[in-house]
Known about the structure:
With 428 residues, the protein is α/β, with parallel strands linked by helices. It contains twelve helices and 20 strands.
Amino acid sequence: MPGIVLVGAQWGDEGKGKATDLIGTKVDYVARFNGGNNAGHTVVVGDESYALHLLPSGIINPNVTPVIGNGVVVDPQVLFEEIDGLQARGVDCSRLLVSEAAHIIAPYHRTIDKVTERFLGKHKIGTTGRGIGPAYADKINRVGIRVHDLFNANHLHDKVEASLHQKNQMLVKLYNRRAVDVDAVTDELLALGERLKPYVANTSLVLNTALNEGKTVLFEGGQATMLDVDHGTYPFVTSSNPTAGGACTGTGVGPTKITRVIGVSKAYVTRVGEGPFPTELFDEQGEWLRQQGHEYGVTTGRPRRCGWFDAVINRYATQINGLTDIVLTKLDVLTGLKEIPVCVAYDLDGIRYDDMPTDQAVFAAVKPVYEMMPGWSEDISSCHSFDELPPTCQAYVKRLEELSGCRISAIGTGPQRDHIISVHSLVD
């Protein structure tokens, strides 16, 4: 039962595709377990590059069954746009399975997301405005709409009406916006449901059956550990659980069927949106990292905030996820630096924190404690083994491994798919 969970170990955009490539043809299913189209990842096949937002990365591989689990919030319009775009490029999307229990992002969720964020002003969260948070809020408030609701007109109308009862009051009286028409939303969702129906399945049963048959399932998380609604830098987080535990609740597969948990980390750190970031750089070094690493969001195009590697959050990611392996990406971006700072701890008013503070007010105020590592100038993209890396580069990787408390099993050495060094197998 090779169930492999793949998660981001920082604030996202770590380059999970490198890990997916290493697992490669050994994967039979790729199951997305959280988030919505607020996440973005790029899959490169030969000379072709595919920017995906909602679809699992396995959609590109004709031998893989891609699955959208019940923990994902699905915007059908976005899903069909992605499917249409891929099919126009010759990618067969007919294998896609969508959980009948996944929640739907309705048009009014996007409206609520945007007006609420504007209303918050300086207290804004930094959402993408795509309706993800309001859809999850409806899920928790038990007024959400699930995929299987789209196939019963009367039932769907009642659910839309219940969901909009309070929202329309808020839109009109608080935000000075027009009320949303229940009938119009119902008709739109029914039409989308007709097209969605061929993809819908009991995905929990499908995945459990596959694991029982000895097939390999890769559980793919959107966003990353530090954006987890429970374990991240709350309230500057996403609205779901992108940590390893979310793979179970987001797909209906029990924890005893998970055999590996792989965390992906950059050799430095980036973040998009609001929230604390202890090692963030506001000078020319931060801009240098941004330019060298091409750090702009796949989904939003926003420039990413950049900073040095933070071992405190990597230790935390190892703890929260139970990581068995780390894939270290974008090591090549640091080439050319004479010295590379690594954050080994935090300091606040003379008090040292070697571990992640639970008080977010403390976390927002801490200063990084740096350890300086010697850099390297050699091009590492042609290195095919760890021993081929420059000695100072090897020392940097070993130190990050020691500080993270988890073995580094693979190293990204360049932008191409084959620019990677495999130190340990990611599949038993």
